[in-house]
Amino acid sequence: MSAHIPQGYTGVVTGRTYNLAYLSRDFSQVVREYNNQVPIVVADSGCAGTCSGRFRGSGFSVRCSESGQEYDFTEGSIQANVSTVPYNGYLGGTTFSSTIILSPGTQSIGWADGIATNVSYKSTGSMKGSLSLRYCEMKSSVVEYPVILINNTLSLEPGSSIADDRVLSRDWGDDRPENSTEGSVSSTYGGLFLALNGTMTGTASMYWNAAVGYDVFPKGAAAINYLVNPADQGKGEGIYWTDPSPDIVAAARELMFRSSLQLGTSSTLQTVNATVARQTNVYRTDYLFVILATAVTAVAVIVTIPTLLGTWTFGRKMTLSPIEIAKAFHSPQLANCDSNAELTVLSQEVGHRRVRYGAVMEDSASANTILGIGPEKQVRKPHRGSLYEGC
């Protein structure tokens, strides 16, 4: 990540008077990626989880000043304190203005070492009050950006602003032409000026037009995008504008951040002390549920204990295995087995037999049928309503 913007990096100047014409090839790619919010992917970052830290790069130190200017757009008034321009015989004035300039100087090359914004706007719906004026100057500097890296995707720290950038030193570059010959030369910050000027500038005026209310004439993207019409009506009353300055500064900041990354080479690698955050599962005990679950379990144990009373009188260890139950109820299949044999012995004596529960013929002589366990092929399915032998 480069800490310096090379001379002539962002824009191209043409003509004898050095007029800014278009963006440089490299900076135009930065602007397109910014406009489309293309993620910044860092290969082999070595960050497992979410890492936050600071990267040194080229940026701006910013200084803003604010003031006010009275206006009066009430019916029949003459705006003495703002620019009043007759329009078809009606009086009115400027209610919004957003301009960007090369600082210091103008759109011509000069000795610019950054950019500046000059904004005035009607901040309330009242037709009489004070215009808000704000001037911000951004000077080229070496700064430390607060950044965050998530899944190898790098970005400025969410919620951060230029006020969170740590200014290390002024970068005393200038915006002079790279050469003094006629023809195409380059501009260090002229391309940034062009990129912001297309979306962040504009003007708007209001004029009193008697019965039809106020005529409003916005011109430029900013004059439209920052206009607020709370009443959603067409007579112009109650409308106002918001301040585009924070968005202009934020856009310039991210464009410089992306430019610093694009200009990075193997010689500008940085070692960054980062804070790593990982997501882990944290369990919290809800003691009410613990008490209730313990109480239910205790009740289940208590009501089960009576069913086990007397098991010690069996004389040996007993189980609820179907084989032992069948032996206890004198199953014909186990008639020849030891009546006191344990499960392991009974399993060996029974061996592999396919049996099932159902209607079994007790003996061929009596033709009595009982419900019990017998060889699979000799057992029939019992039917509802049928009578079977029993005790």
Structure explained in plain terms:
The chain contains seven helices and 17 strands. The chain has helices at residues 25-35, 190-200, 221-225, 245-262, 287-308, 322-328, 343-350; strands at 11-14, 19-23, 40-41, 50-72, 92-102, 114-121, 128-150, 153-156, 166-170, 185-187, 202-208, 214-219, 227-228, 240-241, 275-277, 355-361, 369-375. Strands 3, 4, 5, 6, 7, 8, 9, 11, 12 and 15 form a ten-stranded antiparallel beta sheet that branches. It has a three-stranded antiparallel beta sheet with strand order 2-1-10. It has a two-stranded antiparallel sheet with strand order 13-14. Strand 16 (355-361) and strand 17 (369-375) form a beta hairpin. The protein is elongated.
